[in-house]
Structures are given as C-alpha cells and as structure tokens.
Amino acid sequence: MALIAEEILDQPRAWSQASTLARGTREALPAGERIAVIGCGSSWHAAKAVAALRELNGGGETDAFAASEARLGRDYDRVVAISRSGATSEIRRALELVGAGTTTVALVGDPLSPVARQCDLVVDLSFAADRSVVQTRFVTTTVCFARVSIGVTSDGVIADAEAALSEPHPVDLSTIDHFVALGREWLVGLADAGALTVRETAQLSAESYPAMEYRHGPIAAASAGVVVWLLGQAPPGLAEEIAATGASVLTARLDPLAELIRIQRLAVALAEHKGLDPDSPRNLERAVVRDMIESGGAS
After folding, report:
1. Which CATH number fits the domain 3-149, given the four candidates 3.40.50.10840, 3.40.50.10490, 3.60.110.10, 3.90.230.10?
2. Above 60 in pLDDT, residue 177?
3. CA distance 61 to 48
4. What DSSP line would sit under 112-144, residue for residue?
5. If DSSP codes are grouped into helix, strand and coil, which group holds residue 35?
6. Residue range 206-235: mean pLDDT, rounded
7. Sorting pLDDT into bands at 50, 70 and 90, what band is 10?
C-alpha cells in the first residue's frame, strides 16, 4: 500500500486526537482578536478554511494569506502559521515581518522546527504529519483542530470519516479527464485542497472555485469526462445546471472533511489507474526550502 494511502486511512484516529488536543488548547485561536492565518500549498488552503470558520462562528476578523503574499504589517493581534514541515522558506520569512507585540502561533508537524522556534505558542500536530509528499492527513487534522478549538463540533464526524474510507468511488476512473471541486464559505478552502490533491497525486487537470463562481466562466469547459464534486450543500439549481452540460456532478452526503477524504482516495486511485506512483509526484518536494527571493509581497 502506498504511504499516502496509509495516511489517508489514519485520519479518523488523527482527528480524534486533534479534537482532544483542541479542547485543552483554546489559546491558539481565541475569540475577540484580529488574526491572520498563513500557509503554503495545502496548508494555505487549510488556512483559508480555518479563517472562514472562525469568522463565521463569531471568533472575530480573520484573514488568510499565502505566506509569500502575506500582509502582516497590518494591526493583527495574532498571526497563526500552518506548516507541516515547519521549515518552509516563505513561512519563515513572513514570520520575520510580524510586528512587535503581535502573538505568533505555529500549527506544525514538527515542534522542534524553525517555524516552531520562531513562534510564541506551538501546537504540536506531529501525530498527523504526513511523511508522503502530498499532504492529506495534516490538512484535515489541522482543520479539525481549528473547528473544535473555536467551539464548533460536528456530531458524527469520526463516523463519517470511517464511512468515507470504505465507500466505493462514485465514478468510473477511466472516464475522468478533468476534475473540479466546489464549495461555499469555509468549504472553499477544502475544495482548493481537494483539487490540489488530485492535481499533485494523479497529475490530472483539476480546478476549484467558490461554488457559484463556477457559473461565471468555468462552466464553459464542462462536458462529458468532467467530474464536478460539490462539497457541502449545493446552491439551488447549480447541480442541475452543471449536469445539463454532460459533466458528472457529485454531491456531498457526509461531513465536508469526510468528503475531502473521499476526494483524496479518488486521487490515489486515479494515480494508480494511470500507472503513477502516488508517493512520488513529479517536480515536488515534501518541503520547499529555498533562499528567499525578495518580492514585495510579504509586508
């Protein structure tokens, strides 16, 4: 079994542990502060989900940035950095730009990493740190931790995760030419993470959008061979409009995090169907560590 497949299967255990940790670590995302959440790659998509969740549930103004584009010179009370490796160059540089008096928090897969050492508070998520190149378990576990820490509980989420691990794939793998993930509010970040997993793992063309934005241009490319996966409840009429193009429309039945597991499993199955090694996607490294290039973005 591929390493990524093993880590996908481990998510119910990791979520349970993250939930327990979150109930004792409320100070990571306290209500009432102005917070920025930063990340790179899949961790950036997790940051978007976390930021939207916090705002939607009354936690306070919360921005999410790709670390290389973070505007951290603003008046934030707290900056939260999400990083599986804790070594990513862009995260480290962004943290250097945080103003004095701003609390910094690391949600990391390595509590001894450079990012962890730069932060005031460290949340140790090493029990969910993927060893595979493509992130799966770390992303969902980070979002699970955030949901519980800001007081959002989802009854049955672990059961839904277990169900997601055993369900058959909802579409014939040989018919998929293009993949699209759609979501609303905090699920936009999950949709982005799902599409990136398919793109990285299966080397398949994949996109993601806020659900209703799909109608504003991207639907022009919908046709037979396109799979459109709607995370969460579909806006009225959207699924029918997409289906009329000939695309396959998949609607969510489980908790959105569990739906992301289903997409991860599909990505691995597609890679194996194409004869690819899902643990060795081309042109990728587990952590991007480079000499920083000055860009005017992170300020």
Report:
1. 3.40.50.10490
2. yes
3. 13
4. TSHHHHHSSEEEE-GGG---SSS-SHHHHHHHH
5. strand
6. 94
7. very high
